[in-house]
Structures are given as C-alpha cells and as structure tokens.
Hints:
The protein has 16 helices and 25 strands. Strand 10 (about 230-235) and strand 11 (about 235-240) form a beta hairpin. Residues about 435 have low confidence and may be disordered. Helix 3 (about 50-80) packs across helix 14. The two termini are about 15 Å apart.
Amino acid sequence: MTNALTDRWHALLSDEVAQSTHAHIESELVRRDLVFGGRALCTVLRPRLVTLDELTSLARRVRPLMSAFRAAHARGMVDREFRAQFRLADWEEEVLSDPPRYAFPSPTSRPDYFYVPETGALALTEYNAESPAGAAYNDALSDAFIDSDAMRLFSREYEILTLPSRHGVVGSVLNAWQEFSRSRRAPRVAILDWDEVPTRTEFELYRQHFVTMGLDCIIEDPRRCEYRGGVLYAQGKAIDLIYKRVLITELVETCGLDHDVVRAVREGAVCMANGFHCKMLHKKASLAVLSDPDNAAIFDSREQAAIADSVPWTRVVEERKTHYGNDVIDLLPFIMENRESLVLKPNDDYGGAGITLGWDASAEEWSAALQHAIATPYIVQEKVTIPAEPFPSLVDGSLVIADRMLDTAPFVSNGDYMEGLLTRLSTAKLLNVTAGGGSTIPTFVVHPRD
C-alpha cells in the first residue's frame, strides 16, 4: 500500500504543483523558523505516508519492547552486578544513589528503528532515553505540509490524519511533575540547554505550547541558573519543573556535580525530566543487556519475543566468550574477523560521533577502531538493513525524485506507549540530522476515500 501512496503523490507533482508546493514549504520553514543549525529542516516535497495498519502494527511492537527496558532498569537499580553491564561512569553510579522522584526514569523517550515495509523487519539501533528531540519540529512540519497544493490534491482521494507528537512529550513531563510534587499545582517550567545548541528554535515551539496551557515557561542556559535557599532560579524566577534538553554528561562534565542545577535536582528542590536515573537506559549498552541470552531470565515471554523481533545482536566490546546464534564465540577475534557485518559505537555519544561502520572501513581502520573500543566503553552491533524510499525535491528549479534512506523513530510516553513518529532522511549512511546531510519529514496516516 505504501508504494501505491507514494506513487500517487508523485503523479500529482506536475511542474506547477511541485513549484507551488516547494514555495509554500519554503515560506513556512522561514515563517516558523524551522531550521537546525542554520539549515532548513526539510528539503523534500513529500511527507511520509503510512496506513493505519502499519501504524498500529508499529505501536503494538514498540510497547512490549518498552516493557523490556523497564524490566532491565528495575533489575539494574537493585542489582549492582547486573548494572555493571551498562558501563556507567563513577559519577553516574553516584547519582543513582539518589531516590527516584517518579516511577519511570524516562518520561519521554525515542527508540530509533529501521523499518523495512517489504519484509516487516524492524531493527532498533539506538534508544534515546534522555533528551529526545524533534517532536515539536515534527508537528510544525505537519502544519507546513497540510496546506500545500500537493496535499490539497492528494486529500481529494485520501483521508489524512496527522500524528501529533509534542503533546505527548509535554504530557509526559507534566506527569513526572505530578508524581514528583504529588499535586496538580501548575509548575513554572524551565527548558534548559546551552545557548549555542542548534535545537533552540524547537525550544521556542515548546515554550509556546506550555504558555498556551497557562504555564509560565522560560528558556535558559543552565550556567545562568542559581540555587539558593532551597530554590532553583532562572532569570530571577523560582523554577518548579525542568524540561531538560541539555545532555546530562555534558552538564556534569562542563559544570560538575556541585553545579547549582545538579544540586537542586539531587536534593529534590526541583523536578527534572528526564532525570539522572535515565542514564542507565540511555547507554547503548542497554541494547546489549536486552539482546544477551545470559539475561533472558529477567524478561517475560512477551518481552523476550519483542527483543528477538527488533533488537539486533549487540554486545559490549570486551574480552569474553558469548553467543552468536547457536555458536559460542570469542568476542574480540569475532569482531576483528567479521567487520563487513558489524558496526562499533561509543556507549554514550550522539550525532553519529565515534561510530565506525565495518563495511566502510579498511582492515587497518577497523583494527584501530577495535583497539579504541576495547579501551573505552563501546558496543558492537550487527549490521541491519537500511530502508530507502523515493522522495521528490527541486534541484536547480527542476523536479528530481531520488531514493533516500529513512529511519522510524516513535516518541514514547511514560516508557509505555507511542505518541507520534519522527522520520529522518539521508543520502549518507548515518541517518542523523546532527551529522549533516539530513532532512526531517512529518508522517501522515492516509486512507482511500470511499
């Protein structure tokens, strides 16, 4: 069905419709300030088009996997030997000693998958359990596309449903506040991240959303916050709730554990979502924990099936014996001998930094990358199929339809259910907007009109 939908959209793109759609989207990107690091967020003339069956199937497959992550986190919190598999730093171990302030450590999160519609294959390559971006951008892009000429023509033949994402993020953050405060008192919110990050345009979209809900909301750099008298202040105002976008590792490594924001959170003076306890699941080693058969006993049958369904073979890089399929292998020699089907990733980084694709590396480069991985917490993961779809764009004023790789990254609320979907496109092998060469598109659910 998806191929039929995309073919029909492309058939509607006459020169006139393509030009007008391009002009409309460009004007909306400018009007809404939809940029990432000075680049337009979207560079194509088609959104992602899915059927309700496809969306429902994805939601059903996501939910038991999130249950598996919850089980792994719960076991890690009470079993230090088990927790060692996540390869936490000493300071991360220290903050885990603080009491949890709400039930699930990642009120808002985003598993990043590759989904191949032709086969139904679903492969989880990362779990962003800390500061998932893109939900507000996604909603604004939906608004930009919905009024385009191409969408107007398409909607004559198909019913169109948007997939709002921002409300799920905001709702999850406010749920954390209610658990934390044990009240429904309206909090004053601070969105915290560095002044110089490229996502600040999205923070303003969130700020506007909080304001429409009747909440006071501030965007601030954590370096300017002050903690005094048991209260955290931003721009001179007392803050109740932090919607944290700054990465915890960057905050602690830049400012230290004695920083005002860190102390306020640790002392329970302010609620922060997502808080310090999310670090365990945010580690890429969490996928190794799930996929290692030595840990299977902590998961119920439904969770085990979800892991087998979507988590590729993943291990922490270290000298050990482990299972690969039905075989017992020496891990390090196996990695060295099978670079064409493996990828090395740092345990805690983002934007594609530090990743080595074995099939793109020479034997010498792979050997050097492996030596680095042994010395620094890394994971090794089996290569997965990366899907591609044709997308139209204007190049030098002419319509060009070319294949682009795409990922499937649902937003998950309260570690339980899916609300909205991020899709990123790329012509590069690493699908990440931070790494450059990427584009973000909204997703619409479509159904033929009777």
